[in-house]
Specification:
Shape: globular
CATH superfamily of the domain at 2-174 and 218-244: NAD(P)-binding Rossmann-like Domain
Largest sheet: 7 strands, parallel
Number of helices: 12
Structural class: alpha/beta
Strand order of the largest sheet: 5-4-1-6-7-8-12
Strand content: 15-25%
Order of helices and strands: EHEEEEHEHHEHEEHEEHEEHHEHHH
CATH topology of the domain at 2-174 and 218-244: Rossmann fold
CATH architecture of the domain at 2-174 and 218-244: 3-Layer(aba) Sandwich
């Protein structure tokens, strides 16, 4: 079993790599090699056969070279995040759309080859007007460049899966929280920072009202979604390969209350409220909650509440202990 991961140097890519190495198998077969790809070369775990490569999928030569060895499973995580894709339209389309198209074209050009392709899409494919709780049959109408680029990728994967040229699954990931490490350019980054920084004894800025509601899952759940999508039976998906994933429906106020229950009011006091109309305008068009019956029937699982999401962060990133 040979596995290719694009965007492997990112947070989710790194955690996915660790999970694959720890389990050693996928789809009932031993993992014989990993090809890890990013613009900045990721680290290949010691003793694991494979390669860590620097590549830009918007380069026409990059994707064919990656597909030459015909990986059995491909996790396509490489992307420009939401805020950056909105601010730099050309860069967003080069990476998020052209990169995905190049990868799909390279796969389709191979004879007698139809690998499992797991595509990291996003709930940003939905835009207002939206119901308070989004059903599985809600039409996607993105209102950001990032959401538009992800939706276009989904449609291409649907089409090539219909033709039997690949076996695709597009995962509409919730906002991943609590993200470890430093803040990124995602418009949703504050959802993690208002929990991550106070949990580490630092201050954080909140740019939107406490009443802002959104859909969340932890990095641990994100990795679980990817692994499940790689191994699942795709027959029940039919021609619609895009899946709304489970998550936690919570307001900013709910998240702050959960922080207080777990880390105390001193942690809550480290959050500074500072309105940012640009961020608020982007977030206002995002989904608030889902009823992901299809995903649950297919075996996808996530956390039950924000308390559990915060505890996952404490366990996985802080060694199970809060700082003094």
């Amino acid at each position: 079993m040979h596995i290719l991961i694009t965007g492997a140097a990112g947070m989710i890519g790194s955690k996915l790599t660790q999970a694959l190495v720890a389990r050693g198998t996928l789809r009932g077969a031993p993992i014989t090699g990993l090809t890890l790809v990013d613009v900045n070369p990721p680290a290949l775990p010691v003793g694991v056969p494979g390669a860590a490569l620097s590549a830009d999928l918007s380069d026409p030569a990059a994707a064919p070279a990656l597909i030459e060895h015909r990986p059995d499973v491909i996790f396509h995580l490489a992307a420009i995040v939401s805020g950056e894709a909105e601010a730099d339209t050309a860069k967003g389309y080069d990476v998020n759309l052209k990169g995905t198209m190049a990868l799909c074209h390279a796969i389709a050009a191979e004879r007698d080859y139809a690998p499992r392709l797991v595509f990291a899409s996003s709930i940003a494919v939905f835009g207002v007007p939206l119901p308070d709780v989004i059903p599985d049959d809600q039409p996607p109408r993105p209102l950001t460049s990032y959401g538009t680029q992800k939706r276009m990728g989904e449609l291409m994967i649907d089409d090539l899966s219909r033709k039997g040229l690949l076996d695709g699954v597009s995962l509409r990931l919730p906002t991943i929280c609590v993200r470890p490490g430093k803040p990124n350019a995602a418009a949703s980054g504050f959802y993690s920072s208002i929990l991550r920084e106070p949990l580490s004894g630092q201050t954080a800025t909140l740019p939107v009202p406490d009443s802002t509601r959104h859909w969340f899952a932890s990095p641990r759940s994100a990795v679980g979604f990817l692994l499940h999508a790689a191994a699942m039976d795709t027959g029940p998906l039919g021609q619609d390969r895009a899946i709304n994933l489970p998550g936690v429906d919570a307001t900013v106020g709910d998240a702050i209350a959960a922080l207080g229950r777990i880390a105390g009011e001193a942690a809550v006091a480290r959050i500074e409220r500072r309105d940012d109309p640009a961020v608020a305008a982007i977030v206002a068009g995002w989904p608030r909650a889902f009823d992901p019956q299809r995903a649950r029937s297919l075996g996808f699982r996530a956390e039950a509440d924000m308390d559990e999401i915060i505890r996952v962060h404490v366990e996985d990133e802080l060694g199970g202990k809060l700082p003094d």
